[in-house]
Structures are given as structure tokens and as C-alpha cells.
Queue: 2 jobs
Job 1
Amino acid sequence: MSLLSRLPQLVIYGIISGSIISLGAIGLSLTYGILNFSNFAHGDIMALGAFLALAFLLLLRGLGMSENIFYPLSFGLPMVISFLLAMAATAGIAIFIDRILYSRLRKTGPVTLLVAAVGVAFFLRNIIQFIWGPQPQYYIKEIQIAWKIPFLGIRIKPDEIFIIIVAALLVVFLHLFLQKTRMGKAMRASADNITLARVCGINTERVIMWTWGIGTALAAAGGILAGIENKFITPNFGWDMLLPIFAAVILGGVGSPYGALLGGMVIGLSGELSTLFISTAYKPAVAFIIMVVMLLIRPRGILGGK
Amino acid sequence: MSLLKAVNIKVGYGETEILHGVSMEVNEREIVCVIGPNGAGKSTLMKAILGLLKPSQGEIIFDGDDITSLASEQRVRRGICYVPQSENIFPSLTVEENLEMGAFTSQDDYRVRMKEVYHIFPDLKETRKQKVRKLSGGQRQMVAIGRALMLNPKIILLDEPSAGLAPRLVKLIFDRIVLINHSGTAILMVEQNARQALGLSHKGYVLVMGRNRFEDSGQALLENEEVGRLYLGG
Amino acid sequence: MEFFVGILNYLVFFAITAGIYAILSLGLNIQWGYTGLFNIGIAGFFAVGAYTSALLCGPPPGPMDWRIIGGFQLPFVVGLLGAAAACGIIALLIGIPVLRLKEDYLAIATLGIAEVIRLILKNESWLTNSVWGLKHIPSPWQVPIQGKIFAFLKTHPLLPAWLQSFISNGYNWFFLALVLLTLGLIYWVSEKSIRSPWGRVLRAIREDEVVAGASGKNVFFFKMQSLVIGAMIMGIAGGFYAHYVKFIDANTFEPLYGTFLIWVMLIAGGSGNSKGAILGSFVIWGVWAGTDLITAYLALSGVRAASLRIIAIGIMLEVILLKRPQGMLGEEKRVSKMF
Amino acid sequence: MTEGSVILEIKKLEKSFGGLKAVDRCSIEVKEGSITGLMGPNGAGKTTLFNLITGFYKSDKGEIWFHEEEITGLPVHKVVRKGIGRTFQIPRELREMTVLENLMLVPDNQKGEYIWNSLFRSRSVRAQERYIQDKALDVLEFLELIDLREEYAKNLSSGQKKLLELAKSLMAEPKLILLDEPGAGINPTLMKKLNRNIEQLRERGKTFFLIEHDMDLITYLCDTVIVMDRGRELVQGTPEEIKKDERVIEAYLGRA
């Protein structure tokens, strides 16, 4: 197949992986904006979300919930419920970690937080590995037949359309939340100037909790969608996501959730398009190279940011 | 009638005492201006009144109650609002959102109050959907003051509202301050621009090296020869 | 007696590994403890050091190998120098874009380079032999020492069995001596340098870059030196590791063993303190080996057991950060001491 | 001391922050061997000017000349090496290092700052270290910080930190020293000592350029005072002249 004819298909793949990366990157960017702290455990939070969804799924199946699938999707109601429960549970766990660990280290200084986050990353990954072992785990084992879209010459599975729609919906929800709700505005205000936010009487500790909650719930969603796309999840998945999501954040401008969305799409697309020229094995390296180039020419990212 | 009273306040940062016993009083519906050379402790006084700094001695009475031990948020809720000298806005929020943040602790519908603020600062109404980052210095200052007005405070503390503004804008800001005052809010401000500020104040305090030096009506201070010399440490 | 010899042999094995980790910790201590550079790609430097030295000193590609390069059978010392040089160059290349930026950027860049290195190790079979790894990496002077001297002694009929068993492990004693000698040398370098004006500048940068700049120091240049020297030390550790285990592949240098454990060692021992870095390495490696006994007792499978141990070590790290952030030893009060 | 030769010349310097002109076509000269005071109301651009001279900020336009050499846009460490030292208004100490180490960091061109020398030429490095340490101890003795020499800088009181800041500027041996409010937060006894020290250093050929609000201090120390307002020089003269100048009072009190 010629390079050009593969292009539309790769763009589709790029949008899918871009959606997943963006969901992780947005959360990372939100926590950075308010806490001024790069959460190196964020990739593993994504994996945690994916495995919690698996846990809920198995639980629901165990409780005898019927698996009637939503045709043409490959899964049914249990998966959808697990998806939502996993997002909530991930948020809860992240807030808990913040309470018992990060909040106590905040006054010690930002670098201690970085070390602590690396510790949390390994901790989470190995909790997952301890429970499930290193082998891939599956939400659904059936293979789904892709739809062929005439003229464009692309193939896309119904699940993949679902992924793109869900990611887009979540981004729209987040946008509405940030722009329209009091808490959303307070989050943006606190990211701008946390001292002034306190002078206004905003309870910034609550804002921090919300930020953790929303950022990690989105990360969990990203992790679950990745599980649906790849058909399987492994404990190392979070580690593999870390580089792309950081690259996306840096590309978009640290601290800007909209930049993170844009950055995620760019990283996703360029990763897929790079396969036209180099071995697929080097997809993760593409994110890294884009990031380094960005740091050389415009360290503040496309959309500015802090 | 006395609204805010600071009695013999001693306060500082760490071991450095900045105010060595300062007293002052603002009556209801009054504009009071604190002037003095750099390093006199004017901003420190503001922070002590809002509770951002804890005095080692002295008391602060507001509306008849001793508020010396209250937290800043509680003081804000009682009706003391504060506009810091710098970083007093949320740059990536729109004008309207900045005002909304000002009313964050309020239970009432902030839109009613917002209309009143727009009435005082009509220019803000035109730019209400714009991000504050894109506004000029004068407009930003209006946003900052507007934000503080959103809780309908009894008194508003302004730390150098005219700092860094062009002369035309300084006049504009001072005009608006008078307007706010006419609507019933008392004002306590610290100003470098002493002549103009004293000109519109009912009362002025001159602070030097953390101590009260003069207290008189704004006009009387303006005419006082010695005040000018004091600025140069003479 | 034989039991005693068995323990002794185990201790030698333990000390060699811990010693190699101690070298890595000293490298990280220069970057993080002295200068505040946040490197979470230690595994990458460790791997580059190991592969470089293995390729320089190892045998040429065999008929079953994919790789077409390497195997120059150079002396061990050349391998170590090559390992240090390769790591130094990589550190230099990462440093150029990110050392002027906030510390988080260095962290993510080191993480990225470690990932890229791992990808290369896995995929570039012409160089790294891909997943088949590099085999038969020679241990330095093993042939003359083990082959001649020990072969003679260990079969000598006059010696009791336990002594023969002791001697048959004799080469490890020699390797341990090499490791400890190198560790001592690197310890000397890091102690001497941190007490010198050079080290003072690094610590000033760690405390406040602006002040260091205002005192006329070229902050970027000093950070670069710290990053490069630290990386070179990590490379040397990689070389030792390759020549000790004799076989390496891409999976040898997982972020866990390569990066995480070393961070825990340094933090536990006391970052900014060379003695702390070494102490931390031996203690944490001891804890690590000790937890092995526990998981063995619980009869867990290999991967699960490893996970449980990491969970324990992870909790330990967080507790140290919360309760004793300065580590076991902590930094000395006055470090600058040339006389 | 060559009377009248200019050590620092600023030509039409400009710097804006988001539309606000902090320094606006500012031209200033500082004479060699002088103690020149810099005054002005808040927001006049004094500290910004210091930051521009020392390379912490990059100017938008204009030139800075030091000793007949242009230094506009040089990075901080190069400006320091040219011979311009500064203190910060709010002390920035190296927290986890001792007072003595804070001072010993400062001198330029230390042989031991090259790792090769500190490893293999320790004799000459050691000799230099001993010299630097003696010098640091002298400075600490003078400023009465000697008992705190082995204390972490973070444990000092704010007044002591201010002194440390001064001590560091003395260690640098620059030709021109910029002091940002040296008098704030220091007790009168120490202030007198500091004054004497500045005078002594001036006699040894150093030039001082200092931001200060305390008119007593300025009158006592400075031969020239420059008053800035709205980002540029308003008046220059002796302290006596400045005190009488209506424009200065105007600038401080604001126009009617």
C-alpha cells in the first residue's frame, strides 16, 4: 500500500490514541496548575482506573448481571457501570493519597513531592501486579469486526467510535464544568493565584480535592478507553503512558488543560503517522523527540501556560 | 460612628517588628487615607487589619466586636474586603468571573450585586466577557476593586490603588472611589499619591517608621508643611 | 563449617551487588544530593554502561547472534572507560535542552531517554542482539585467576572440603575487591569534590540558582558537569554489573531495579551524604534480600513476590519522606572542608 | 581615584511589563569612587533598574555601559565577573548551607571550582580556600556574625540574614556594589558600622550605588543622589539640594 493511501487510516488511529492521551494529559495539567507539582504517578493512575474497571466488571458479572451487549458495541451495561464506578473509585483513591501523603509534604517543598510521586507510581503499579500478575487482562475477549467506510478507505470498529465520542463528551463536560460551575471557576481562579483565591474566601483545600478528583477520574477514563481499544490491559500500561502524557502537557503548555488536549492530539497523531517512516516499535520515542524539540524551541508550549 | 478601630497594633514579619504600636479609626461612610514614606508600615497595617498577619499586641475592633483573633475569611464575611497592591486579579478569568469569585462566599444571587458594580464601573460592563489578562492596567485595577465590592462590604481596604497608573487613570480611579463611598461603603486606603488621596479623604494618618506621626483631616494634612518634609526623612 | 562457608559465599554475592548499587547511588548523589538534579532515568544510564562495556570487552558475534557489531575483546578497564564516556555523552545531550528549565523537565527528559534506550535495546538487533541479549561477557581476569591458581588449590588433597568450597568461590572475592576498590575511588572523588569549592557551587545551585548566578557562577555549566559526572559513574556501575552477571538483555534494566531502588537507597541513606548513599545501598539491598525470605515463606510466585516487596519498599520510602526526610545519616552541617 | 570618570552609564534604558513601563528612557551616570543614592516613590523603577543592570532582566531598548564597555544583555554571572556586585532587598540565603559557606561561595575565579583542580591540585586549592576562609571570617567578625559562622543560614533571624546579604556583597570584591535597601531592618548600631565600612571601602576605590529611603542615611553617606520617578531620572544633586527640591516632594506626594 502506498504511503498516501494509508494516511486516512493512520489519522483515525491517531485520533483514537490522541483521545486517550489527552484524557491523561488534561488531568496531569490540572493538578500541575494548582499544586505546581508534576505527578509522576499519573500514568499509573490511568492503569489503576483500567484495573478498577476490570474489578467492577468481574464483580458485576459475578453478581450475575446480564452481559447483553449494546450492538454494535462489543460490550454491555456492566462495562458502562464499571466505567463510571472506576472513575469515581480512582478519584477517591487519589484524594485519599493526597490527604495522607502529598498534603503533608506540600510545605516541605516541591521536589520532595516529586520523589514521593515516583514512590506512589511504583506502589500503585505493584499493587496491580500483585493482584492480577503481569499477564494481560481482558475486559471482553470477542473480536469485533471493523466497519469499512467506503471512499475514504478506512476501517473503524464501533468500539473505536465509542472511544472518540466518550472522550469528546468528557472534554465537553470538563469544559462546561470549568466555565460554568462555581467550583470550576474557583479551580481556574486558584490555578491563577491561590493566595488571592484565599483572600476571596475560597476554600482552596476543597478546590485541591476537586482538582485531584476530576483530574484522576479523567485519567481513569483514559485508561479504561485504552483497555477497550487495545482489548487488554497490563500493569505496565501506566508506565508506557507516562511519556506521551507528559509530552502532551509540555507541548500544550504546562498548566493549561486546553493545551493538554491539543498536545494529546498532536502526540497521538504524530505517533501514528510516524509509522509511515519508522518502525512501529519507536512510537513512544516519537513523543519524546517532539517534546525535546518543543523544549528547545518553545519551552512554554503552544498555548503559553505558566 | 466608629466602624473599624485599630488600637496600639504591634506587628511584623518573623522577628522584625514593622509597626511599633499604631492606632487608627475609621468611622462609617468615611474615606480614610494612610500616607507615609516607604517602609513606614502602611501595607503591613492593611494586612494586620485583614488578619493576614497576626499582631503581637493590640486589638482590632470592627462594628463593636473584637476581631483580633478571627481568621481572614471570617473577617471577609463580616464585611471587610481587601484589594492587594499587586496580583489582585485572576488574569485567565473573564471580568465577570473575577467578580463572581469576589462573591464566592455569598449566599445571595451575585448577579444583583454585579449590576451595582457595573453601575459604578460602566467600562467593566463592556469588557465583561474578556479575559482580564488582556485588559489595561487601569481596567485591571477596576476589576480588582469591583471584585472586592461584590460582597457588599462595610469597609474596603485599598493598598495603593493608583500605583503604576497613568495620571488620567489615577483621577478616574479616585473618582470611582468617591462614588463607592457615596454608596455607603467606608474606605481605608494606603496611598503613595498623597496629594490627590488626601484631597478626597475625610481623615488622614501619616505613618513614619511604624509609628503614628500625624492625624488630621485630609485638607489640614495637605496644608501641613512638615508632612512634605517627612517624606524625605527630614 | 560448610554452612559457615555457604553464608560467607552468599555474603560475597550480596556485597558485590550492594557495592554496584552503592556506585549507582553515589552517581545519583552527585546529581540529586549535591545539585538537586532530578534524574529518574537511572536505568537508562545503567543499561548503556552495561551494554557499552559488554560490547567493547565481550566476544565477537557468534553464528546464532543477530548482532553484527561489537565484541572487540578489549581489556576490562577500557570497557569501563567506554561505559563512562557513552553515558557522559548521553547526559550531555539531554542536558542541553533541559538544564536551563525547571527541575521537572529534567525528570521527564531522563525518563524519556531511558525509555528510548530501552526501545533501542529491544529493537536494534544489529547492535544489541535484541531480546537474545549479550552472552558470555567475560569477568575480568577470571581465566587466569580461577583457571590456574584456584584450580590448583581447590583440588589439592591436603585441603579440607570446606576450604575447597571456599576457594572455589575465590574469584568472587577478587571481583568484590575490584568493586570495593572502585567504590572507594568514587567515594574519594565525591567526598573530595563536594568539600571543594566545586561542590560548594553545586550545593549553592541546589539551594538557590539565582543566588549562585548572582555570585558569578555559570549555573548551566555546573549543572551540566554534575549531570555528566553522575551519569558516568552510573555507566561504570553498569559495566561492573555486565561483567559480573555475564549475560544482559533489555529486561535486565527495568525501571524498578535501575531507578526506583536507587532512589530509595539514596533517600534512606541520606541524600547529600556519600557515606549515607553507601550505607543506604547496603541497608536497602539487605531489606530487599530480606523480603525475599518473607515472600519465599509465603510461597508466592516470582512476579507476585517481587510486587509485594516493591509495595513494601514503596511504603518505606513514603514513610521516610514523611518522618525522616534527611535519611539515616543526613547531610553534614558544614560540608566545605579542604583542610 | 580619578575624580569625575564615569563607571556606570545607562543610556535611554527601557523595560516594560505587560504594557506598564517600569523603566522609561532612563539615562543615569554613576561616577567612579562615589557613593550614589537612588531614591524615588514606590513603583518608580528603582529595583527594576538594578535588575536590568545586573542582568536579571533583559532591557527592551537602550544601553548599559560599565567601565567604557557595553554590558547590555549579558547574563548575570558575566555581569558579576565584570565587577558589579549586588544585594537583594529581601535576603536570599542558601538555606541548608552554613553562614561561612554562604560567604565562601562568593569570590570569583576560585581554582577549586574546577573539579580537576580540586581533585588533583589540592595544595594550591587548599591555600586559596584558607585565604578565602580568612577573608570570610574577617567579614563575619566585622559584622558581628562570627559566632554564627557554623550555623545554617536558614536559622538566622531576618536582621541577621540582612547582614549576611551585606557580608556576601563584601566578599565579592566588585568595583561597583549595588545595595538594595541596605538599611531596612538593621539596628542603628550596626547601621553605623555598616556606614563606616562603606566609607572605608570607598576609600579603597569601590563605588556604591544604593537604593535607600532613609534620608538620614543618604545624607550621611552619599555624595550624589538620583531621584527616579516614573521610570526615569527626575533630579540629581547633593542630598542637601534634593531635600530642598520641590520636584522631589512633588514626586513623592503626587501632583495636586
Job 2
Amino acid sequence: MKTRIYLDNAATTKTSQEVVDAMLPYFTEDYGNASSIYEIGQRSREAITKAREQIAQVIGAKTEEIYFTAGGSEADNWALKATFEAYEGKGNHIITTKIEHHAILHTCEYLEKKGARITYLDVDENGLVDLEELQKAICPETILISIMFANNEIGTIEPIKEIGMIAKEHGVLFHTDAVQAFGQVPIDVDDMNIDMLSSSAHKINGPKGIGFLYIRKGVKIRSFVHGGAQERKRRAGTENVPGIVGYGVAAKRAAETMEERTKKERELRDYFIQRVLEEVPYTKLNGDPVKRLPNNMNFSFRFIEGESLLIMLDMKGIAGSSGSACTSGSLDPSHVLLSIGLPHEIAHGSLRLTLGEDITKEDLDYTLEQIKEIVGRLRELSPLYEDFVRKQKNSKN
Amino acid sequence: MKTRIYLDNAATTKTSQEVVDAMLPYFTEDYGNASSIYEIGQRSREAITKAREQIAQVIGAKTEEIYFTAGGSEADNWALKATFEAYEGKGNHIITTKIEHHAILHTCEYLEKKGARITYLDVDENGLVDLEELQKAICPETILISIMFANNEIGTIEPIKEIGMIAKEHGVLFHTDAVQAFGQVPIDVDDMNIDMLSSSAHKINGPKGIGFLYIRKGVKIRSFVHGGAQERKRRAGTENVPGIVGYGVAAKRAAETMEERTKKERELRDYFIQRVLEEVPYTKLNGDPVKRLPNNMNFSFRFIEGESLLIMLDMKGIAGSSGSACTSGSLDPSHVLLSIGLPHEIAHGSLRLTLGEDITKEDLDYTLEQIKEIVGRLRELSPLYEDFVRKQKNSKN
Amino acid sequence: MYSEKVMDHFQNPRNVGEIENASGVGTVGNAKCGDIMRIYLDIDENQIIKDCKFKTFGCGAAVATSSMATELVKGKTIQEALQVTNKAVMEALDGLPPVKVHCSLLAEEAIHAALWDYAEKHGIKIEGLTKPKSDIHEGEEEEEEEEY
Ligand SMILES: Cc1ncc(COP(=O)(O)O)c(C=O)c1O
Ligand SMILES: Cc1ncc(COP(=O)(O)O)c(C=O)c1O
Ligand code: FES
Ligand code: FES
């Protein structure tokens, strides 16, 4: 069955037709090298400048502070590795959280091998970092705080402005992985004291394979990809002009529609969450109920396992994703769900559904009906559920 | 004036319509995350597998030896930096040449700061490395030889098979930057003993922002971009599915048309070179006349400066590029032209023209007429030409 | 990349050529990019620049600034010609891209060199003119050199 209801927009989104249309001329007409002198290359260069402006505007940055990358992962790698190199004279200590994306966590592990000391902050049961813990973790060797703007699995939005303030007070750089937040919540790098910020186009109906790292002017930064003089000599490689153009259009669009779109999403989200919690027994909402991305819904259904649930939903035309990592090359349950205190077997039975702009109430009603049925069927299959029911019966007797 | 004759195909190419058409469904229909479990993601995954096969075939590799990157620069950075890390137990010595692309040279400079010792081999006046020099440079600490397959400025094709043999005999890894060679000359990684190979799609009528690094099975390799489990856990980041699909089609196409296309290009190339050398006085061909990329033509016109020539050609609708680096953020003349022994002022007066599949003999005839006129005009402007003419007069008297 | 004025002076450079028996000739080179400019001045007994010609081996900006500089000094007195700085030339051309600022320095220096040659030939001293360098290494407009 063809996917009819796509509820995995936190993984990636459909590239909107408007974005594709904007990209097309840069494949077959204005395909010149943007670093070249001739007229066809100049048109590419102008297109890049425009996209840079469109993006800078969304976060209140200057255009020359936006550096294009191949996506969020590269931006995260760059921010951490280059800061570690550029500030080794100051110290080797980096503070992050236990619930970051792997692009941050695995980079941190890599840096540990290179001599970095990393503090991984705990989060509370809603996924929020504790500002006092953060304060306490800062020491004279601290060169960087890297805390995600919003979590990709449970949707929790961190207190970024407060973190920025703390970083500023202590003279420590602040990087935020805003891959999930960009275009979903208002961001102002000055107001929030953000020094570096990562983002990825394909999360906001832009193309895959393009992202950016915002680097505040004055931050010492080293290159991550060495070579040609592109991106103010900071990131080598022939510019992905169609990708950059598409990103610009997607960013502009996301900013313009943000208020209305997220208002609608929040309503749908809360409607759905409420119904699921009411109508599916032994179910828990993961993540903060309020400080939450407008499009994120994450549930744990006790006694069942996520992959089975996902496949069955898929057979009904519904695409979601799971905290269960069987799909992503590792069999460990999600580090995020474990960090907010879920036991292994409950973390395994999680489902993330993330809204996109086309999703309607009817879609969600249909999804709920399917979930109810599938969860019921899987519980019938589950020895855990059997034990649970037996135990309950016994305790009643 | 709109560019009518695009002769800068070594910089970047037009994405062919067939490639764009193949990419389109992956923007707006099969846009699912290739790492996900559901059906729409599976279609992305299958498309990636197919592209990987199409590419692997061109160089005689196994599909699982192809790792997608954001382009040639990232592939070059990855090959060098990761090898340096993975083999630090064996040694710190890398051998390369003076005429590599900046993606190699600047990465080498970076590695020197990290403790690498780099030998930059000289080349002869045609741009060819000396195999004996290479032999002599190898020492017990040598972990890698990185020599480009073909040079991007002067088109010289290096003796890759011989280099591969030497590398193998000495048990040293061999990486080649084949960004200019892939799809233009036959490549067989086994026959040529290549352990790693970089390539970039936009050089062969594929999209910008996608490349690959071939890594022979058995080579110890570290990640360059850390994070998610994509690319066999070696290169993190949501897969650029449209880019990868486009690359696959472009690679297949390049391989299928190679024989016929390059035969035609070689004829046009040699026709044009001969006419330029005969009809424009004080002109030199740069690069090897025979061991040369089928689409590359590079001339030095004495007494004139490249940028002026480029701009004037552009005004006549002809896009080329220059050894003069005024255009690329640095004012030094091309390191390649200096390495083959050109004096500064002659290196400055260079013009690179690189053929694409649509170029006709008539285009080249028109281009030649324009070059003759413009070179004449610029020489009238040139104090160097004035001095030269005066000296000649005096010596006659 | 270039303004319309730059393109105009590049495509149709004014005052290209040599002056036979010129009152002063100045040739300067820019060590930074290897470009070379030569200016010829024809100066009358009232120290008025009656004619001015140039030859340039250089980029589009170098050609355009030479052309504009010759236009600006023509008909001026020596003292007025000294006021034709690279900034004045750039302004007259509606600006240059940052990497091309050094090209305009060539024009200023070439005029100074030609005036110096004139002064030497005629055994006079020109107020405010110092011996020009034949190689220009300007320190200004240098991009901050950072590690990458
Ligand atoms: C020989 C060579 N290596 C590497 C590159 C870098 O490729 P990309 O610009 O796609 O990163 C290029 C082209 O720019 C090249 O010609
Ligand atoms: C929070 C977060 N950071 C980083 C990334 C990596 O972005 P990309 O896959 O575009 O490299 C993602 C998405 O995959 C994400 O959700
Ligand atoms: S039983 Fe299949 S992944 Fe655990
Ligand atoms: S005069 Fe050298 S770049 Fe313009």
C-alpha cells in the first residue's frame, strides 16, 4: 500500500513543489560555477546570495554568518571539531546533554579520543536540562556549551535563551543544534546569545543534502572541509546551487507560514495526544507536554515493541517512526528515551508521529483507529501483557 | 549577453535533463528517509542501492565500497584525514604532488600542523610525476600516496597504473583524486591497484553537492562526519536521495557514452589546439599533448593577463576559465602552472577551455576568431608587449 | 562583479598607447598579483598635463582604473594630478570589489612614478611627491589572515 499519511516529518519532509520549481533552473540553465567570473556563474552567485539572505533573516543573523554545509550532521561535526581545535589554547572541556542527536554525541566521543573532556548533562523526565547543573558544570577550561534547541525524538524545547545567558556570563561559546527547531519556533541568535547554530533543509520541506552552520562574527573558526575558497574560505567544495536556492525558498516559506502553520499543528497535536492517552490504555506521552515542538507526538505503548507497530501501521498506509533503533543499525533502544528514565522494555514500545503541513484531523482520526487496533493485536501477542494481566487478576483474587 | 558557448566543463557541467528527470520523483513522491522502515523510505533505499551499483560498475568496484559524500572536496578531505588517523600506528608520511587540487593540498597543510610529514612531488614541464622520484620518496613511515588521476587545469593524465603498482609493491595505500577523470577515461580500481578514489557528480553532468569516496574493502577507515548510521556507519547524515539517484544516472550515462563522446572530443580538442598554436603567435599549450583529458585545452598567451581575456570572451558569449586566480579569492597565479615551470607573467595569461558534450566545431571556430581578436587588442594594451616589440626592433637594427 | 562604469572603461579604454618623447614615463608592478602598468605624461611648460596615455598588463579592474586615471589627470596641473588618489579613481568608477582595491593602487602609483620621472628629467622637485616604489605591497585592505 502506498503511504497515505506521512507522519515522520521529523525524519525528513517532502520537498515542496515551490522549492523544487525554484531549484530547477539551476540544474539545466544557470548551472555555472558560482566562483567563476563569467555571466552564467554570476547568476549562480546571485542566487546563493539571495538564499543566504532569506536564511539569515529567519534567525536574525547577518548574511556573512551563514555557512552552507551538506546538512545538519556536517554542521554539528564542524561546530564541535573546529571549536575544539581553535580554542585548545583556552581549554578542552565541552558541555552537552545526554539527549543530543548522534551527530553531536558521536562527535563528542571522537573528540574524547583526541583529548577533550565532555560533560553530558542529565535531563529530567520531560527531557529538560537543569540550568543549575549547567552552571555547576562550567569550569575555566570550558570552551563550548552545545545543547540542542529541540529534541528530535520527544520534541522537548530546551530553555535556549537562559542557556545563552549563562554561556555569555561565563564567556563560553554556545552552539545549538537547531535542526528540529529551525522554521518551527522563533529563533533570534542575538536575543538568545547563540554563537553557532546547525540546521538542515530537508526538515523544513527543503531538499536533502544541504544545511548550514551559523557562526557569529568574531568566533574563531577553523575549516572542516579544506580546499577551495568557497564560503569565505571556510568550507570548500563547489557550491550546491540548486540545494542552496531550495533551502532559501524553504526557509522563507517556513518563516512566513510559521505562525499559522504551527498554531494549526499545535491544535492537532494536542487533540491527538489527548485522544490517544484517553483511548489507548497503558500509554504514556514522552516529552514535555507544553515546551514541545508543534509537530511532535511521542508515545510509549506498554507491552509492545516498536518495530512491529511501525510495520503494521505502514501496512495501513501510515508512516511513523520508533524509539526502537532496530532500524538504524543499532539494536539499543533510544538513548533519549532511556535518558528521560524509561525502562528498556517501555522505551522499546515507542512511537513517534510528527506532523507535516498537509495532515488533517481526519488523517489523525484514521491513525488513531489503526493504532488502537494494532496495539490491541500486538498486546494479544505479548508475553509481557499476558504476565501483566495474570498479575492483575491474581492481585484481585 | 547570454552564454552561448560553455567551455568551462572542468569547473562544472550542466545537469543533463535525463538526470534531472530521474531525480524529480525523489523530491516530492518518494521522499521518505532511506534509513526508515516504512515503505516510502524503502523506495528511497532501493534507489540508493541502484545508484551505488551504477557507480561501482564504472570503476570495477563492489557496491559496498562506494561511500557517498557531499562532493569531491569532502571525499579528498576524508581520504587523507581518516587515513592519517587510522594509520598513525604505522607512520605519518604522505606522498602527494605539487599539482593536486586545493582539496588535497590544503588538507595536507592542515595535516602537517597535526604532525604529518608530506612529500610534494615535482612534476615535469608537461605535468607528469616522475615514477623514480616517487619510489625514492617512499620510506617505512609512508602510509599513503595520493596522486590525482588527471589534473583539473592542464588536463594531464598521470601514470596511475604504474603508481598503483609501486604503492602495492611497497605496501602503501594509494588514493587518487579522480574528480576530473571519472567518466572521462576508463578506470579499474583492481587493475590499477587503487585503494581509495574521489569523485564528484557535477563534473559529469550530474548534480552539484554529491560525490563519493571509493574505499577498498580491508582499508582501515575512520569516519569523517560522525553521527547517524548511514553509509555503513561511515558517513553520517540523512541521505541526499535525489542527488544520489542523479549521480547514478549520470555515471551510467558517462560510462555508456564514453568511447564515442571522448573520441569526438579528442578530435575537436586537437583541431582547436592546432589552430590556436598556428594562428595566435606567442602562444603555448600547457599540459601533455597526448596524455591529456579528452576535453581539456589550456593555453598561455604571452603578454596578456587572463582575467581581461575571460571577461572579454564572456562578453562574446564564451565561458572559459583562467589560470589567473584573481577570480578565486587568491591573487597568486595557479600553483599548477608555476609547477610546470611557467614564469609568473606567463602563468597569468592562461586560458582553460574544457569541452562538453554539446560543443561543435562551429562553436570552436567562433571561439578562435574571438580569441584572435581579443588577444590582439589586449596585446595592444600591454606594456610587456610594447617592451617586447621594442626589443625585437632594436635587435634587428 | 564590476560596475557598469568599470565595464565601460574596460571595454573601451580611453588613452591607450604611447607618447613619443614623453615628459615622464612611469612603470609600476604589483607584487601581489604580478600585474604591470605604465603611464606616459606629456607636460607643458606651465606644468599642465596636456596628454596622458597608458598600457596595462592586468585584470579588468586594472585596465579600467588606468583608463579612468588617465582621464582624471588629463588637463590638470601637476599638483592637481597628485590629488588623483586610488580612492578618487575608484569613486569615479562607482567602486570596485574588495579583492580589486589593490588594482586601483597601481594607477595611483603609476602616475606618481611618471611625475617622478618628469621631475628627475627636469631637475625639479614636486611638492608632496615621494619616490614611488616600483613594487607595490600595500598593507591596507589586507584580509585578516587566520588559520583555516
Ligand atoms: C581535481 C579536483 N579535485 C577536487 C575537486 C573538488 O570537487 P568539489 O568542488 O565537487 O568538491 C575538483 C573540482 O572542483 C577537482 O577538479
Ligand atoms: C536534532 C538533529 N540533529 C542533527 C540531525 C542531522 O541532520 P542531517 O541528517 O540532515 O545531517 C538531525 C536529523 O537527522 C536531527 O534531528
Ligand atoms: S528480536 Fe529482532 S531486533 Fe530484537
Ligand atoms: S591588477 Fe592584479 S588583480 Fe587587478
